[in-house]
Structures are given as C-alpha cells and as structure tokens.
Write a structure and sequence with these properties.
Helix content: over 70%
Order of helices and strands: HHHHHH
Distance between the termini: 40 Å
Number of strands: 0
Structural class: mainly alpha
Largest sheet: none
C-alpha cells in the first residue's frame, strides 16, 4: 500500500470515529441540549466535511456538510425544535455517512441515482421541520 492510500485509509478510520461522535450526540439530544456535546457533534461533522473534500470523497463531504447545516440550526435553537421524527431523520443521515464511508473504503463509486432519491427525502423532511440555515444564525454561532 502506498503512502497516499495509507493516508486515505487513516482518514476513513477517523471518519468512523467522528460518525460515532455524531451518532452519540444525536441520540443524547432527546435527553436535553448539552452545548459542549453538541459542539463536538459540529466539530465532527465539520472534520468529515473538510477531510473528505481534501481526500476527494465528494459525496461524503457533501452529505456531512448538509448534516452540519442542520446541526447548526439545532444549536441555534438550543434543540427546542428536535422531536423524535427529527432525531430519526438525523440518524438516517448518519447511517448514510457510515455507508458512504464503507463505499469509499471499498473504492465503490457512489452514484447520484443511489444517493439522491433516499437522502434527498431525508433532507427535504429535515428542511421542512428545521428550515434552512440563516446567515444570521451562522454568524451568531461563530
């Protein structure tokens, strides 16, 4: 295995750990908003987004970016808007992150025909519940 492939595999290992962090945070949100834990969720999603972009895993980067936006909305609202349906939708998004990571590890091409229909429905439902990230919210979070 060459050095580039080793770096890519190391990133995918780290991505799995970040996904675990995200999943734990989403599962805990129903027990009350913990700002410190949620900051960890945002950092994990942001790390996946940036690392995946650098490694050329565009689907992984795009999905984590979209989830990160929803996580920012939740943070701005202090999780007041989170109900069991939103939690379930977020967990479905996390499941896609896991699956995409496995596809990247196996060097399986991720097609729009596979990704967009189901994931699009998840994101559309999240958008209906949470709305879009407002620039004012993003500035407030900085």
């Amino acid at each position: 295995m060459n050095t580039e492939q080793e770096v890519r595999w190391q990133f995918l290992d780290e991505a799995q750990e970040y996904i675990d962090t995200i999943e734990a945070g989403v599962l805990d949100i129903s027990q009350g908003f913990d700002g410190e834990k949620w900051d960890g969720v945002l950092r994990a999603a942001h790390s996946i987004k940036g690392g995946a972009a650098m490694m050329g895993y565009s689907s992984l980067s795009s999905v984590s970016h979209r989830l990160e936006d929803f996580f920012k909305i939740i943070q701005a609202n202090r999780a007041d808007s989170v109900n069991t349906e939103i939690e379930a939708l977020l967990l479905q998004g996390v499941d896609y992150l896991r699956e995409i990571t496995q596809f990247c590890r196996q060097d399986i091409e991720i097609t729009e025909e596979w990704l967009i229909p189901s994931l699009g429905k998840i994101f559309d439902r999240l958008k209906a519940h949470l709305g879009e990230l407002d620039l004012r919210e993003e500035i407030h979070l900085l």
